[in-house]
Amino acid sequence: MATAEFRFYAELNAFISRPFRHRPFMHEYARDATVKHAMEALGVPHTEVELILANGVPTGFSRRMQDGDRISVYPHFQRLDISTATCVPARPVRGAKFIADAHLGQLARHLRMLGFDVLYRNSYSDAEVARIAAGEARIVLTRDRDLLIRKDIVLGCYLHSIVCEEQICEVLMRFDLARSIRAFSRCLTCNGLLRAIDKQAVMHRVPDT
After folding, report:
1. Rounded distance between C-alpha atoms, residue 39 and residue 59, angstroms
2. How far apart are alpha carbons 102 and 195 in whole angstroms?
3. How confident is the model at residue 196 (pLDDT cuts 50, 70, 90)?
4. Whole-angstrom distance, CA of residue 161 vs CA of residue 192
5. Cα–Cα distance for residue pair 25/21, rounded to 1 Å
6. Whether 10 contacts 116, CB under 8 Å
7. Which residues contact 145 (CB under 8 A, 6 or more apart)?
8. 3 state DSSP class of 14
9. How confident is the model at residue 94 (pLDDT cuts 50, 70, 90)?
10. 164-174 and 105-113 are packed helices; what angle lies between their axes, rounded to 10 degrees?
11. Sheet of 139-142: strands edge to edge?
């Protein structure tokens, strides 16, 4: 085993043990572990991280830990562009597509109402969510941090709130989506895009009143 000093900032402290929050602490890790493995062993999903400093220098998830390292880990910055400094995968800006896990049906419907592409099925397994997210470059929305730690998930968002309205705000702020809202442009049930059609073409499907 080897030892390094870790410090997690802001909302990342919610993932780690209470005695380690908001302060530097020493922690043992397996030799040859990557920064990602060491960080996730402490409970912090890689999807929630935007900047990692190793001994004051920006680094990525794949860096091998060294005995005596000082590791500082930061969450996503809401109002600061650090794309030239960070070494972790960039978050999407436009055309974001999502997949919501089985417990977020209400959130999925509300995001569809705002015009966002959100896959959802209440029977999704974690393996299905991870496979679809990887295959279609979708962002995983979940309150299950163990799901976000899966290695085949690149982009994800852990929802801290259990209240749907607050979860919507979390997603919009996290991915800067306020200007991308296209309300009532998708079906709330199937996620498909809505399109205008001549009413005569569908009159036979309208029930008598």
Report:
1. 13
2. 28
3. confident
4. 27
5. 9
6. no
7. 15, 43, 45, 158
8. helix
9. low
10. 60
11. 117-119, 97-100, 139-142, 156-158
Decide the pairing of beta strands 25-29 and 139-142.
Answer: unpaired
Mean pLDDT calculated for residue range 86-98: 73
Q: Write out pLDDT tens, residues 23-49.
A: 999 999 988 899 999 999 999 999 999
Contact 54, 71 (CB under 8 A): yes
pLDDT for the residue numbered 4: 97
For residue 62, the model assigns a pLDDT of: 95
Distance CA 2, CA 32 (A): 9
Can you name the residues that pair with 7 across neighbouring β-strands?
A: 72
The whole-chain average pLDDT of the chain stands at 92
The phi, psi pair for 87, rounded to 5°, reads -115, 10
Whole-number percent of the chain with pLDDT over 70: 93
Task: Inform me whether the pLDDT recorded for 91 exceeds 80.
Answer: no
Residues composing the chain: 209
The two tokens of residue 117 are 């592409």
The two counts, helices (H) then strands (E), for the chain are 5, 9
Question: Per residue in 138-161, pLDDT tens?
Answer: 999 999 999 999 989 999 999 999
Which of 179, 113, 104 is closest to 139 using CA atoms?
104
For the record, the structure tokens of 144 come out as 């299950």
Q: Are 19 and 33 in contact (CB under 8 A)?
A: no
Q: Distance between CA 4 and CA 22 in Å, rounded?
A: 16
